Amino acid sequence: MERVQRICLYIFCFSLNFEVWDPFETGGYFSISKFTGVLYFLASLPAILNYKTGIEFKPILHSIGLFFGYLILINAINADANHNSVIDFTMLQSIILFWILLNHAQSDPYVLEKGLLYFAFGSVVLALLYYNGIGIEIIDNRVSIFGDNENIIGQRMSFSILIIAMVVLQNRLQLNRARFLLLLLIPIMLELLIASGSRLAVISLLAVFVASVMLFKVNNALIKIVVLAVGLVGFIAIWQMLMNNDLIGVRLQRSFQEGDLSSRDEIWKSIMPLIEQNPVFGVGKTGYATYCNSVFGRYWSPHNVILEILCFSGIIGLSIYLFFLYQTFRMGYLTYKQNATLLPVLFMINIVGLLLVSHFLELKIGWTLLAYIASSHLINATSDNITDGISLGPYDTIEQTNDEDSYEWLDVGR
């Protein structure tokens, strides 16, 4: 049954590239990722009864559970005849998925990293569909596939480029040298990223590129200098290519020179009165929906998770959610500090970008990345992972570390 669960997870991760594709035109009731998500849930049912969640995950799960419970309360208080959906089932599904992924990683430490590689393969398929003109729609010169949001498409390409680069360079999955052929897939995804016109995806990719070069640990100072030099040349080349592109170059210039945020700033200004009137407790998603109807004529996402949570649950809810993020990110940072694994830290940069200018709370891939960050320490790095003369960092055993953020508790619940 464990093998079936693992396979279902890989299929689910692959399908996250088609999160809104509704091939049967059911009006959103069916999608490929929903179907594979149900399969993964059913395959996980036998294991759920035996879950013993590790103690290191308790602060993370308790905080997100508290946030969701508080949101239900505020939703109920502010419900009206037109907006009375007290439980946000989309978020509930995401939290359950997050919990299952954490426990799955406990019993099978490599499974999420492998799952992310399958997600990247799905992005390659999406890019190939773009090259062949399948499912494409052009909106304001930007590419959408199967009706998906252009910015989300760009972000998926950014995630997948990062995943493939780190799988190849840090090789935590211990693949053979043929893995370098995976790098040939990056230009295909980069082309779709640019065609999506997503400024956030481009900026996130450049940011993680710089961060990866700066944070990459090597044993030899000369090799570090070479890495920095190659990184600088690569950054300049990528920047020139982007700025010379008619679509993304113009959009980036408008952002930097004119402060253009695609009307997000207008939405933020419009919802500020709601936040100012209810700063502590918020008005719930129900109250926010009522407010949107009166101001915009329909429900409108703020495209900023911080402002969104302030509207929903005020300072109290935001504090709880930020604590949840802190606990999750702390695990990724400790993983990097212990064995120099870059991927969890670099994902944090992507996620912060999504929190500031997107609707992260609804993205299944976002919750999957959070689960990976929180559980990344479960893969024990050893000195055997030193490849091609590049060290992945210090590989002291858990018991040997004297740091105040000790890993001594990380073996609990495996």
Question: What are the key terms here?
Answer:
two-stranded antiparallel ribbon, mainly alpha, single chain, 64% helix, 2% strand, 2 domains, 414 residues
What would you note in describing this structure?
With 414 residues, the chain is mostly helical. It folds into two domains: 1-50, no CATH class; 58-411, no CATH class. Helix content is 64%, strand content 2%. The protein contains 15 helices and two strands. Strands 1-2 form a two-stranded antiparallel sheet. A hairpin with a 2-residue loop joins strand 1 and strand 2. The longest helix is centred in the C-terminal third of the chain and has 35 residues, at 305-339. It is globular and about 65 Å long. The two termini are 18 Å apart.
CA-based shape? globular
How large, in whole angstroms, is the Cα Rg? Answer: 22 Å
Which strand order does the major sheet show? 1-2
End-to-end Cα distance: 18 Å
Count the DSSP helices.
15
How are helices and strands ordered from N to C?
HHHHHEEHHHHHHHHHH
**Proportion of helical residues:** 55-70%
Which ranges are low-confidence, i.e. pLDDT below 50, for 5 or more consecutive residues?
381-414
How many distinct domains?
A: 2
Q: Structural class of the helices, strands and pairings?
A: mainly alpha
- Oligomer class: single chain
Mean pLDDT: 86
